[in-house]
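User: I'm new to structure prediction. If I give you an amino acid sequence, what do you actually give back? Let's try with this one:
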Amino acid sequence: VQLQASGGGLVQAGGSLRLSCVASGNTFSRYAMRWFRQAPGKEREFVGTISSSGGSTTYADSVKGRFTISRDNAKNTVSLQMNSLKSEDTAVYYCAAALYYGGTSYNYWGQGTLVTVSS
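Assistant: Good question. You get back a string of structure tokens that encode the predicted 3D arrangement of the chain. For your 119 residues, that looks like this:
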């Protein structure tokens, strides 16, 4: 599975941005999908997970209530809707595919997309 994230850019604090991650192949619907982020000089941070069917989601406390993960298995796409953005959301965002919904492990990792939130 190859993953490619897109949709990053520069946005003002309080604004919104929607990231997308497209997967290659025909096994996308078998995987839970995760989003991670890494800010400059900081460790990678888990953002959230959506189950393979899209019926369940889990979020980090830092984004809960502001970010929403969704997926379209027919289009091999997972999205991250980010609202009420803060300067501390500035990071490179990555999508990942995981065989298991729980935890933060992953089997495939995609290229990132940079999100910059200006205050």
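You can read the tokens as a compact description of the fold. Here is one thing that stands out. The mean pLDDT is 97.
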